[in-house]
Amino acid sequence: MKHYKTLVSVLTDNGWAPPEHPLFSAVRCNHACTLGDREFTSDFYMIGFKKLKSGVIRYGRTKYDHENGSMSFFRPRQLIEFRDLELEEDGFLIFFHEDYLNGHPLHSEIKKYGFFDYESNEALHLSPKEERTIWELFDKIQSEYTNNPDEYSREIILTHIDSILKYSQRFYKRQFLNRNILTSATVSKFNQQLSDYFERGLLETQGLPTVNYMASTLHLSPRYLSDLLKEETGKTAIEHIHIFLISEAKNLLKGPDYTVSETAYKLGFENLPYFSRLFKKEVGLSPNQFKKQALN
């Protein structure tokens, strides 16, 4: 598998002109947009827009869903494959090395954008109006990139990239809302998977369910699952897991059969103090106080 450390190697290997800047490039794709025919990794962030007619895009070994005009976001050192892509219309790719962000607020802020960790069936699908907004920003970036760069160019380019990311965050929220039937189904499936995990006794044999485990059962990335649940319910995936566990704990503690430590063990908690802290945070009482109240 090839790992690209330099931007010039990415572009020249794929028949494109060398970059105007060693750490940044903006490429417009005219009905074809490919990066080799095999898997690769890189030290670059990539942002892409395309209306895919045919071909395969894989990110983290999962296929991207490209039904309409959609955006994809790739972070450094993630496994990527672009193969035999044919576009219905023009698209673009923006590359920037992580070092291009050094000394700029975006160096830290970009880590807040969860969609760089989204995977299968999680691309951002744009409305025609949203497409126009993104293209306007790309055209400004490309103009700044190609027309006599000066000491202001990097700051201006990063400002426009920051705008693309902020708009993408907004558009993802719209996508969550517009697909609320799918979102609601995901919430129901999530809760059902938790119940199944408990009923099969996996809490005792495998411990607490992780967000990664729950996401894998729903064929979603952990970050996308948490963002989707947060948008729909106001709580993240880990918060939903905690709520479920504390609900089961309250049920067990209300009867005489289980002590606090036995309850914690049955629910997969190896650390009793952690269970007690979590219980008190959610209920407002310690497990011992709750049990005494319930039995009285």
Automatic annotation (TrEMBL):
Pfam families in the cross-refs: HTH_18
Gene3D superfamilies membership: Homeodomain-like
One annotated GO molecular function: DNA-binding transcription factor activity
Name the record gives this protein: AraC family transcriptional regulator
Keywords, ordered alphabetically: DNA-binding, Transcription, Transcription regulation
Coiled coil: none
PROSITE patterns, sorted: HTH_ARAC_FAMILY_2
Top-rank taxon, per record: Bacteria
Domain HTH araC/xylS-type: 192-293
Organism taxonomic ancestry: Bacteria, Pseudomonadati, Bacteroidota, Chitinophagia, Chitinophagales
